[in-house]
Design a protein that fits this description.
heterodimer, A: 570 residues, Purple Acid Phosphatase, chain A, domain 2, 6-stranded mixed β-sheet, 25 strands, B: 156 residues, alpha+beta, Immunoglobulin-like, 3-stranded antiparallel β-sheet, 8 strands, globular
Chain lengths: 570, 156
Amino acid sequence: MTMTRREFLHTLAVASAAGFPLGGEAHAAAINSFYDLHGFGNNVTLMHFTDCHAQLLPSYFREPSVNIGVAAMAGKPPHLVGAALLKHYQISPNTKLAHAFTHLDFERDARAYGRIGGFAHLATLVKKVRAQRPGALLLDGGDTWQGSATALWTQGEDMVQAAKLLGVDIMTGHWEFTLGAARVKELVETQLKGRIEFLAQNVSTTDFGDPVFTPWVMREINGVPIAIIGQAFPYVPIAHPRHFVSEWTFGIQEEKLQQSVDAAIAKGAHAVVLLSHNGMDVDLKLAGRVSGIDVILGGHTHDAVPDPVPVKNRGGTTFVTNAGCNGKFLAVLDLEIRNKQVAGYQYRLLPVFSQMLDADKAMSDLITKVRAPYAQKLGEKLAVSEALLYRRGNFNGTFDQVILDALMQESGAEIAFSPGFRWGTSVLPNEPITLEHVMNQTAITYPYTTLTEMSGEMIKSVLEDICDNLFNPDPYLQQGGDMVRTGGLQYVCDPTATIGNRISNMTLSGKLIGADKRYKVAGWAPVAEGASGRPVWEIVSRYLQDKQVVSAPQVNLPQLSGVSDNPGQA
Amino acid sequence: MHQIRRRLLKAIGGVIPLAAAAGAGLLRAGNALATTWNKTGFEAKAAADALKSLGVTGAQPSKDIMLTTPDIAENGAQVPVTVTSKLPNTQSISIIVEKNPFPLSSTYDFSSGADGYVSTKLKLGQTSNVIAVVKADGKFFTATKEVKVTIGGCGG
């Protein structure tokens, strides 16, 4: 095990990429050195992207300024933001890497470095890596078929075509399942067949427990057998309306996973890789309990983590990664295999700067083609924002505040709830807000708006329940996602407390919420079966059209307690 | 007879409550339903009273009991629970849902030689500990796991 050498090489690679001064790298030599990776190991390379949320075009995505970790997770990756993250990973401030990994000076740096991601630019980078590392596999961690208007309106068709052209070898899923079990099966069994392997060891039928998907595959990379196991998001029927997958059951399924790992090793795998949509905290816990996995290539929690985190278990060490979201990053993992096992690695999480990578012609053409029927409608300008609009963060974002304001104005409700999704692109100040921007925040298969009467007691228990999904000290009891955003309602939140005790001092217009008093609450994305209502994008679009100019939204944030020294907030 | 029953239980996954098996004519009722209906236990409204009704005193947690449940219930009305006892001479397995209105959900008696294995689905009204109580060689042992029941929604 060449631990020291590996760490040395890795540090070198990070350092060489981090030292670019602001605005000074537009020339070709700097661009080439940024994406030219040192060779490493013996030609066993895996590329990984995850949670692109159907963003075919380059876009802006502001990383969170609040991503609090509690209990054993406090202050540790991935719960570091801003300057604390830069310091931990020795990334220089005011560089393009600092821009890619943090929210710092977002507006200024977004204008300097341009949009990030997009499949045409990603395709160029994938080809670049494949030219340097023939035989490299490309893994997609899921949340690929959801997040844009075109993915919704084509039921994932546009993304399947783009993923095939990109050359994805293997994928797993999460939001994919919200297209419904029948559509997922149809795509897997027809379009993906023979091209992209859809793996999920943790999905089985509710009746007899039969596996729904292939759990794992062995792939030879330049003659070296590597096992890849798929782990779908474990809580699909809980986080989304259950009827989408009524005949399937999910869960983490540690024991089955261990069986797959053992089977893969018995069949001669030199390395075992888990392509996971668990979320990083869940993966970190799982890595300590399941043995024999060399690397977990993770997603779901949208954490852009520059370095793999080593986790010890009874079989050795498992390295856990998380590769960000929105198509911002391509991870490149080189393995050194010696004596039929992993002896070292090099990992790079490369931001896909669209200004530094040419658009791939074939992919651009495909994107233009799939967008053609919708492009005009999506380009419709609804309003102009004077402020930066973004979503990501534990408690609220400016774009969510726009949604909350729209819901309350439209329905006359005094309180509004908007789900704490982690996807959704950012809009720079003075940029027109288009229908496409609104769809990027709302494009789901259950977009219904609702208006319900709730007692103060009920509101409290809803907030407690959702807050526990985010801050339970046991990662296996977290579902991912952020705290529900609230309009009107204000409260105090202590993430370090237990369920029932995190939320206090709930007020509306300065008055304490009464436990028995009833309140009109607007919301969207109901998980209850049979829910209906106007799609949220209609309501937000009309609100924006009426306003024409969106001034800086008054972001309603809870007052936090118990986390004043937590480096998960900036 | 024991050999046959064990094979039968294995063949069908060992899953059926004995009463159902007896009803289907698979077992001789007089033999299978040797124990009487635990009225006090099934009507008890507190886990402690249910345990008392089973005659449990000083039960120790045992690593030889595998209690498998979801961490978060996908559907609180049907939570899959599996108990496997590797304890020698397992005589009975009971499953208690601590926070349910009637915590004792079921008791399964095993004739000697039968594998200590039960798989069933239980209704959970709220987040609760699920306790497997195994009687083996005249002594009681337990395994406990919390199952979270949530209103759901808001996934990332």
